[in-house]
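Q: Could you fold this chain for me?
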Amino acid sequence: MELIEKKFRDTPTDHKKYLKRLSEYVKYLIENGRILEAKYFYNKMQELKPSHIKTIILGYELAIKTFDNESVVLFDRALYDSKHDEELLLRMRLKYYYSVNNEKQFTGLVEYLLFERTIKTETFDLIGELVITQNAYKPISVLVRYLKSKKRILHKQVEGQVRRVVLQKLVDTIVESRK
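A: Sure. Below is the predicted structure, expressed as structure tokens.
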């Protein structure tokens, strides 16, 4: 049994830290791919504090992981209505667009975040990770254009991945032009 699970299970339900430990445990389960367990414990969390920001965020994460589009819409609306943190809302949308492979919305949001907002390091790191793992030309071109405008460079290993995607786009364009 992991320490986080032990702390949660040893906390009585009427203890003041029960909800905090429950949310930490649900987050731990999601991060480790234990989605069914996370859903079960999330339901307990939702019964206790349905409109708490952590409940909304974890529900959004679970909806994305389980491809529950209806719940994504509900949690997106709840997070928007809470007016808690617009950048958090945009990060969640970015994760959603990535998970359903909606390249157009994903690229548009990446461009908006990079060029029209001042973003936190956490958001920039997420953008970089998702753009590189998506292996799609358009979002990569947006990221490279942003890095160039800020006079930054890619890490050598990441640059190799980017080059493969760009070369593949070039090959596809050449093949398409010959048809």
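A (continued): The longest helix spans residues 156-177.
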